[in-house]
C-alpha cells in the first residue's frame, strides 16, 4: 500500500516555524511495509522554511500581515496531486489543521487559534480528484 504523507509527520523540519510534527505512528507504517511518499506542499510550492504562518481566508491563503500566499499553496497542491497520481497512492495521510494539508478542520483565518470546518488547499485538491485524505489525528 502506498500513502502520500505530510513530510513534517516524518520528522522533517519543514513547518512554517522551522520545526516538525514527528508522529511515531506514521513512522511505524514504514516498518509495517507501507510505502510512504513524502510531500510538503508549502515548501514544494516555493515557500521558505521558516516562513510566515498562513491561514485560509475564503479561497485565498494569507499571512497575518496580509501577504497573499495563495499561488505558492496552489503550486504545492498541484505537485502533491501529481505525486499522488504518479505513485498510485491508496490515500493521503496529512497534517491536521494546516492551511494546505488540513482535512475537516482548519484555522479560521483570524490567526486567533480558532478552528472552522474546511479543508486545506492540498487536501481539497486531492479530495476533488478522488483521493481519500485522512488527518494524522485519525491515525
Q: Segments where pLDDT lies below 50 for 5+ residues?
A: none
Rounded Rg: 14 Å
Strand content: 25-35%
* Structural class by helix and strand composition: alpha/beta
For the biggest sheet, the summary is:
4 strands, parallel
Q: Given the structure, what is the number of helices?
A: 4
SSE order, one letter for each helix or strand:
EHEHEEHEEEHE
The end-to-end span amounts to 15 Å
Mean pLDDT metric: 97
Strand order of the largest sheet: 2-1-5-8
Keywords, separated by commas or semicolons:
single chain; 139 residues; alpha/beta; 8 strands; 27% helix
What is the structure about, briefly put?
This protein is of the alpha/beta class and 139 residues long. Helices cover 27% and strands 25% of the residues. The longest helix is centred in the middle third of the chain and has 18 residues, at 70-87.
Explain what the structure shows.
The protein has helices at 24-31, 41-44, 70-87, 121-128; strands at 2-6, 35-39, 54-57, 60-63, 91-94, 103-107, 115-119, 133-135. It contains 4 helices and 8 strands. The strands form 3 sheets. The chain has a 4-stranded parallel β-sheet with strand order 2-1-5-8, sandwiched between helices. Strands 3-4 form a two-stranded antiparallel sheet. The protein is 27% helix and 25% strand. With 139 residues, the chain is of the alpha/beta class. The model has no long low-confidence stretch (mean pLDDT 97). Strand 1, helix 1 (24-31) and strand 2 form a beta-alpha-beta unit. The radius of gyration is 14 Å and the shape is globular.
